[in-house]
């Protein structure tokens, strides 16, 4: 993988955790809306919607650059709609991005087998 691929993975990773947090907060706000007079759903819904759209755009870019198979691409998409999936995706993407950077540097330096 080249450095642009690693950047695409990093962008997806950086938005996955905030997207997961916003999803959990939206769930909490939904419960509070129905049990109290507190209604933050419109605000949290907008924030979560923006983060989800960013996640999907970055996911498409990463899929295009990494040439993931359909199973891997579907896994990362499904993780975005599960309440704690974004945290798992963030850890997995961090490892994948670090591996991509290491491989890119090794190729740049001419290390055999990279």
Report on this structure.
By secondary structure, the protein is mainly α. It has one domain (3-108). 82% of the residues lie in helices and 0% in strands. The protein has four helices and no strands. Helix 1 runs antiparallel to helix 2, helix 2 (41-66) packs antiparallel against helix 3 (70-80) and helix 3 packs across helix 4 (85-108). The longest helix has 33 residues, at 3-35. The model has no long low-confidence stretch (mean pLDDT 89).
Order of helices and strands: HHHH
Strand content: under 5%
Radius of gyration: 17 Å
The shape is: elongated
The percent of residues in helical segments reads: over 70%
Instruction: Measure the end-to-end span.
Output: 10 Å
Q: Characterize the largest beta sheet: strand count, sense, and whether it forms a barrel.
A: none
Number of helices: 4
Q: Spans of 5+ residues with little confidence (pLDDT < 50)?
A: none
Number of E-type strands: 0
Give the overall average pLDDT.
89
User: SS-based structural class?
Assistant: mainly alpha
> How many domain units?
1
Pfam family, one: DUF3817
Domain DUF3817: 9-95
Protein name: DUF3817 domain-containing protein
Keywords: Cell membrane, Membrane, Transmembrane, Transmembrane helix
